[in-house]
Amino acid sequence: MVELKIRAPVSGEDIPDPSAIPALAPGVMAHSKPYVASPEHQEAIGFPGELVDDWEERAVDKLGELVKNSRGLRVYLDTCVKCGACTDKCHYFLGTGDPNNMPVARQDLLRKVYRRYFTFAGKYFPWLVGAEDMTKEVLDEWYTYFHQCSQCRRCSVYCPYGIDTAEVSMAAREIMDSVGKGQKYCNEIIGKVRKYGNNLGLQEKAHRATLEDLEEDIEDETGVAVRLPLDEKGADILLVTPSADFFAEPHIDGLIGYAKVFHHVGASWTISSYASEAANFGMFIGSQDNMRELAMRIRNAAEDLGVKRIIFGECGHAWRAAYNFMNTLAGPFDFLDQRYPIPQHICEYTYDLIQKGALNFDKSLNDDIRLTFHDSCNVSRASRMGDKPGGQYEIPRAILREVCNHFYDMADDTIREATFCCGGGGGLLTDDLLELRIKGAQPRMRAMQQVAQDHGVTHMAAICAICKTQFAKVMPEYGFEMDNIVSVHQMVSNAIILDGQKIDREEGEEQE
Amino acid sequence: MLTIAYAVLFYGAALVLAGGIAYRMWEYSTTPAPLKIPTTPAPVTRGGVIVRMAREVVLFESLFKANKWIWLFGWIFHAALLLVLLRHLRYFTQPVWGWVVLVQSPGIYAGFALVAGLAGLWARRVLVPRIRYISAPSDHLMLALIIAIGVSGLAMRYVFRTDIVAVKAFFLGLMYFDWQPLPADPVLLIHLALVAALMIIFPVSKLLHAPGLFFSPSRNQADDARERRHVAPPLRTAARARQ
């Protein structure tokens, strides 16, 4: 385990500002890099197994191809004026002080190569504009620092031109993949989805058994037979949720929450074993081919099952891929019921039911929890819920206020569009990057420590599988327990009163 | 001789500037934007996008959120630059338009504001370690160039006065292809040479941020992916093939 200087603040001690700017510490994270993908993992998703011989040339060609095919990338590489607005916005910079984690410096690792080969100034006056040849050192630098970007887009909010480092880091990763230097974590997972339908490599039989076990657990607890249907043809709703919801804590409690909501309103719904994954790691590696491949699985499942609607479970980047990309990559979805949003978020679904008064809650069942909410980056800055801009902030909060008496937001400059990434997004949620993950969580954790001190907040809710896994891992480093992170629909699950539900005397005070 | 040199220089510079920017805009507009990537919360309509873009262009809204000092210096510089440029229209119009007459005296003060704004930005580039770290020689030179243009302009106004009537005749002459002699004052010649240099490097430098902003997908896209299927040109073929 990595030795870190971070510790939980002693009670009463001043908690440092989450946005406090560290002194520059060049190279302090130069050692941090994830495991390289094996030839097997590379080839399974269409990339060369190992670093190809003429990789310099092919990397430069690939960069040229990407620039030609992405207006965003081209404009972002051309327009930066080095104003410095983004330099203190990245959680990895705030947590490490490594200057290469300043968004503009990270972009420059790629921009310097772009300038060298594709711009007039870089071709003829490289020293003047900081242009550099594509060398082994540059490639290693890319591998190190483009795997210290969680593609959270916080820098893009503050850039006067909207330059999005996520796009640059996706491009860099795609170039590295295309010359045979991919990242094990992401590429292995994409291979699993393409083979088994989900990130975990969970197969249909085990999947079914898991859901049946869960049904028993819910019935034991509530006395109500809540179903978790799998591959049921003719169901109205296809639920696509991150596969972590089937196994991990606290994700699974969120899944139980969705099931209870569906059950309570008598919805006809199903999970698909073929498309048993909401996550789309193709996005993290910038590979549109892989993104399309995974999006098509969902479309195919929806067509095969004959559903009318698609609803996504709690997952941040999956919601971005679904909300913004799925229609382009796998659409048009004209076979679905056009009266509902395509796709719809589970929070939109639950919120609508709350508005209609269709759900019964006993808020006091969550009275042991004093709650705050973590806006997940991809939901906050790369998607929407509801019909108004910002619905992605208000809808989850409205649900939480409906099911919980004690809700407190963290500081304004750390939530909503200014939210800090959990530190594990963008394909970095792997133990070989644990030091980075812990340091990157620092701004968010400080903001939580502040509301813990000010309002006695005990728990934080999130709507992202990555955030949940990340916080369960890093919260103990900051003086919290690993179960202080909860799913939004876990809070719903705790408070919802199903028809015919037995109320546990110890937990709930009131009786029928 | 001098007149010919400067005439050729300015024809060339104008050609490079206009041609270069036109080429860039053509390049940006023909490069596909394959996916919807607006930074949210984003407007859900095209009209909303125009308003968002206007707030960025006029107020530098995102920069304001990011850093008040950079915003202050940057905004002062750009607003001043606009006034200075408008003021200079008097050298290219005959008779001078009424509103150009009105901006003459604000335009003079703007000259000082322009230099002050740039000086502030340069000071940050040198004094703030984060910004020093990300600065290349060209970033310093660009500031030096524009400051030199501003200072030489102010110097002509207050110290080394030139025959401004002759300068105007020179530029009107350029515009109507009826060349007139350019006064041989050193400060004027420096000022004009630097301006021509700026015009020439514009399309191959970070000054592209001016047209670039309008093409930035994170700012110019509407947040309507569910309502309207976004299909960029190369994908259109694939989509048709499947149908």
Can you walk through the features of this model?
The complex is a heterodimer of chains A (512) and B (243). In chain A, 46% of the residues lie in helices and 4% in strands. With 512 residues, chain A is mostly helical. In chain A, α15 links the parallel β3 (309-312) and β4. In chain A, α5 packs across α10 and α13 (251-264) packs across α22. Chain A is globular. With 243 residues, chain B is mainly α. Chain B has one domain (2-66, 136-242). In chain B, α1 packs parallel to α10 (186-201) and α6 (104-127) packs antiparallel against α8. In chain B, 33% of the residues are buried.
Write the H/E string of chain B, N to C: HHHHHHHHHHHHH
Low-confidence spans of chain A: 508-512
Number of helices of chain B: 13
Q: Mean pLDDT score of chain A, rounded?
A: 95
Q: Which structural class do you get from the secondary structure elements of chain B? A: mainly alpha
Shape of chain B: globular
- The fraction of residues in strands of chain B falls at under 5%
Largest interface: A-B, 72 and 61 residues
Task: Give the C-alpha Rg of chain A.
Answer: 23 Å
Q: How is the largest sheet of chain A built, in terms of strand order? A: 2-1-3-4
Total beta-strand segments of chain B: 0
Task: Please work out how many helical segments of chain A DSSP would assign.
Answer: 22
List the helices and strands and how they pair.
The complex is a heterodimer of chains A (512) and B (243).
Chain A: H1 39-44, H2 55-69, H3 71-79, H4 91-96, H5 103-118, H6 120-124, H7 126-129, H8 136-145, H9 154-158, H10 165-178, H11 184-196, H12 204-222, E1 237-240, H13 251-264, E2 269-271, H14 288-305, E3 309-312, H15 316-330, E4 344-345, H16 346-355, E5 371-373, H17 377-382, H18 391-403, H19 434-440, H20 442-455, E6 459-462, H21 465-474, E7 485-487, H22 488-495
Parallel strand pairs in A: 1-2, 1-3, 3-4, 5-6, 6-7
Chain B: H1 2-30, H2 46-59, H3 61-66, H4 68-88, H5 98-102, H6 104-127, H7 129-134, H8 137-158, H9 164-175, H10 186-201, H11 209-212, H12 217-220, H13 233-242
Helix pairs in contact in B: 1-10, 4-6, 6-8, 8-10
